[in-house]
């Protein structure tokens, strides 16, 4: 999967435009991803990612880094040996594309707005 463009509220992946938060797996996209507590990323929000066990999880925390990742979520990822990279969504998109080009087993979870 390749992210062609991101701007506030919209992301284009492999030619398809999405306007809701999403998780990009190597073989599928989960669109309409929403967290139980909105701007807090809880462990249960990533159940499918934890089952998938990627080498790396990239989290785009929004254009202004509004989404917080709880310490419990960070611990759960660490316990599964999943490396976490988090940043604003603009930088997260760049890193996602770079690591997928390198052939890494990467999942990206992207908050598209604030």
UniProtKB/TrEMBL annotation:
Q: Which SUPFAM superfamilies match?
A: MTH938-like (SSF64076)
Any GO CC annotation of this UniProt entry: cytoplasm
Q: Which domain of life is it from?
A: Bacteria
Record protein name field? Uncharacterized protein
TM spans, by residue?
Answer: none
Tell me the organism: Candidatus Schekmanbacteria bacterium GWA2_38_11
């Amino acid at each position: 999967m390749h992210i062609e463009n991101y701007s506030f509220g919209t992301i284009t992946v492999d030619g398809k435009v999405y306007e809701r938060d999403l998780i990009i797996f190597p073989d599928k996209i989960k669109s309409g991803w929403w967290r139980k507590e909105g701007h807090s990323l809880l462990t249960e929000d990533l159940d499918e990612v934890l089952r998938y066990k990627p080498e790396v999880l990239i989290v785009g925390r929004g254009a202004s880094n509004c989404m917080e990742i709880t310490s419990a979520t960070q611990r759960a990822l660490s316990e599964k040996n999943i490396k976490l990279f988090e940043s604003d969504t603009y930088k997260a998109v760049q890193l996602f594309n770079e690591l997928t080009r390198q052939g890494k087993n990467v999942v990206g979870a992207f908050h598209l707005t604030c």
